[in-house]
Amino acid sequence: MGKIIVEVMPKPEILDPQGKAIKGSLARLGITSFGHVRQGKRFELTTAGDVTEADLETAREAAETLLSNPIIEDVISVRKDA
Asked: Which of 17, 21, 22, 65 suits 49 as a labelling partner, its CA being 20 to 30 A distant?
């Protein structure tokens, strides 16, 4: 069985209230070494056999049309899991 990882992040110009809340929580825990936090989404898609180039292309299409909102999110990566 193969696995494809799709990572989606908010576009840089989009406010990220979840990332801001996480940064505030880190500060309350005394963790102040991070200047900025953005929260995204990770999807794991499995295939019946080894991941093929066709599977990766289908995953890219799914990422751009269903797994992300192209108005406010960027698909960062679509890759075969090592």
From this structure: 65
Distance CA 23, CA 3 (A): 31
Which residues lie below 8 Å from residue 66, measured CB to CB, with a gap of 6+? Answer: none
CA distance 79 to 2: 11
Those residues whose C-beta lies under 8 Å from the C-beta of residue 77, and which sit 6 or more positions away, are 5, 6, 7
Q: What is the pLDDT of residues 8-30, one digit of tens each?
A: 999 999 999 999 999 999 999 99
The pTM score is 0.88
Nearest to residue 37, comparing CAs of 24, 21, 23?
23
